[in-house]
Amino acid sequence: MTKFFKIAAATALLVSSVMAAEYTIKLTHVVSPNTPKGKGADFFAKRVGELTAGKVEVVVFPNSQLYGDGEEMKALKLGNAHIAMPSFSKFTSIVPEMQLFDLPFLFRDDDHLHKVLDGEVGKIIKDKVTAKGFVALDYWDAGFKHMSSNKKAILLPTDAAGQKFRIMSSHVLEAQFKTIGANPQVLPFSEVYSALQQGVVDGAENPLSNFYTKKFNEVQTDLTLSAHGYLGYLVVMSESFWKKFPNDLKPMVLQAMREATEYERKEAALDDADTLAKINEYAKTSGTLKVHTLTPEQKAAWAKAMEAIYPQFYSVVGEDLIKKVQAVK
Q1: Which residue of 157, 291, 302, 304 has the fewest CB atoms within a 10 Å radius of its CB?
Q2: Res. 284: pLDDT tops 90
């Protein structure tokens, strides 16, 4: 479908849906409605309608129907879209501190992560995004990343030495692999399967959903449940739109967002558990993949090795922010 017809179809949907509502919020995202993010967006739309007694209609445009992955931020700035939930990587050029979330083994587990996101550090980063002309609302989960290889099991930092790992373009991720003697290779995500298959790279890091849905399990022999890095989304609103939005309705929208955040995070956890079960079943039946869980001692060895790169990013991320994260109990 051409861009013209996509916008025309979206406009027709918008016109038909707002006839009974006094105010409309256009929410755009780039994934399928059946993903945790897509489900969270639909839940938010439903709760806004309920809490405002139909005065506010949230129209959700999934699958890049309205704007693509690289267009959302500009659309928010112009007020052409009202809410989006880009990945953290979309913010690092305007708020370098967002690279905090790329630091490996910084978060001990889900509980620690969410305490950080919902606490002082999360607010500091949201305030920095808001200062750039957006309204930062909340953090949604995409999941933790895990390491895989077609060479051998990666249980200790020394196991990665000499292996070639595909990474996204990131100074943090480059340092992460170089410090353990591995060779990071920046490749587009669309090329990862063939690169693994052909031996251009030996391994990669991915959340479980990417690992399974992109069939990396077919071209990797070992998956380590390392949970070493976090991928997330920041829900942001158009500043110009929010300034003009009725003050008496704002609390209902914010309450709906709080509820949607809780719902999306639960859906992400369920999706992760379901995907892991599928991966374990594949490993059992195929005999070509082994799934490994780090022991506490192995994880401690990784954390110690990776902490050595943190000072390299004190001037970018902020030593105080990193230490605040580490201090959260």
Answers
A1: 304
A2: yes
